[in-house]
Amino acid sequence: MKPVEEIYWLRFYGCLAVFSFHFLDRLNQHVDNVYLDLARIPAVLGTPIFIFISIFLFSIRYGNQPPHGFLTKRLQYVMLPYLVYGLLYAISNYLNLLRLGEPVDLIEQLREYLIYAGWHGYFLIIAMQFYAFYWLYSRYRLEPWLPAGPWLIVSSLIGIGYWGLTRYYQFEPPGYLLWIAPLGWLYLFFLAMLMVQHYPSLPPARRQRLSWLRWLSRPEALLAWLIMIAVFTWFGRLEHSSKETWVIPLFILFTLFTLTRLRNVHATPLVKRINRYSFGIYLAHPMFFAMVDFVHEFVPFPLWLYCLLLLVVGMAGSIGLNWLANRIPGGGMLFGKTLHVPEQRRASQAGCSLS
């Protein structure tokens, strides 16, 4: 099978979006203005992109027959890094609070990070739930009862209602338990399944039953939604994260547009290199941001140098750690495997996210 070039670009974008979102959070501690909020708009798509990619590639690769040991393998590749990095972040935060003289309990920190998923690795818990759902959906042939087209609409409404109501009633369980519930992300599963059904192109416009897909993939639809988001942002009426109601239509419009425009655009060597280390970058970059913050506490930098160090140390450190871990036996399993990304276009299909 030919490489899925679009996925290289989507994973590249998703990796940089997550990295940029956390970078902007750091910068926001020093600068707070509407321009930073506008910059966050494209960055909120990072987490949804990774979930979408995984389901899309599993479905296009395995169809309705996930291989034996599928879930066991996913547990190893996803949950072991979750535990390793969760421990690292929990212990480092515990030590930092002790250094600052704050009252802190190690067991409480471990519970917050590992049980309540109170760190950016909450994404791995979401992903694992959808890997299990994909296995059930395929193994028990649920497509006739849960057709992707109608259920994309239903699940989008469920997600919008979930994020909207929890915000309205200020429902805040411990950690990120609110975020890891699948209700807010269910639309990503059915969007991925629907795109696989019609890959590599959307249904012809004459097929009225699904002509809405082609209409939504038009650049005018995405541009109109972006303009509306920018206007609301300019007047301070929106919160910016991947867990907002307005992100769901934005992601659907963005995905339909990009998957129909990037098919014949070959990924560059830089795009493929970021793809190769994307999992490690996702997991490790806040650790290197924290190192820059620690040094900055004792040796204050001008803002431009602080930003430059965050970008360089965060990216280079994450790639370097992932490169080193994957050269140690078992290191990739613990710290995140690098993806197999063929250098030549004639090579096998693009490596699956988190595989």
Low-pLDDT residue spans? 345-355
The counted number of beta strands is: 0
- Work out the radius of gyration: 20 Å
Give the helices and strands as they follow along the chain: HHHHHHHHHHHHHHHH
How would a crystallographer describe the biggest sheet?
none
Assembly context of the chains: single chain
| Structure class | mainly alpha
Subcellular location: Cell membrane
Pfam families: Acyl_transf_3
Membrane topology: Multi-pass membrane protein
Protein name: Acyltransferase
Annotation keywords:
disordered C terminus; 355 residues
Account of the 3D structure:
The protein has 355 residues and is mainly α. It has 16 helices and no strands. Helix 1 packs parallel to helix 14. The chain is globular. The two termini are 18 Å apart. This is Acyltransferase.
How would you concisely characterize the structure shown here?
Helices cover 68% and strands 0% of the residues. By secondary structure, it is mostly helical.
Outline the secondary-structure elements.
Layout: H1 5-28, H2 34-43, H3 46-62, H4 70-99, H5 106-115, H6 122-139, H7 148-168, H8 177-180, H9 186-197, H10 211-216, H11 219-234, H12 247-261, H13 269-276, H14 278-298, H15 303-325, H16 331-335
Helix pairs in contact: 1-2, 1-3, 1-13, 1-14, 2-11, 3-6, 3-9, 4-5, 4-6, 7-9, 11-12, 14-15
GO biological process, one term: enterobacterial common antigen biosynthetic process
Membrane topology: Multi-pass membrane protein
GO molecular function, one term: O-acetyltransferase activity
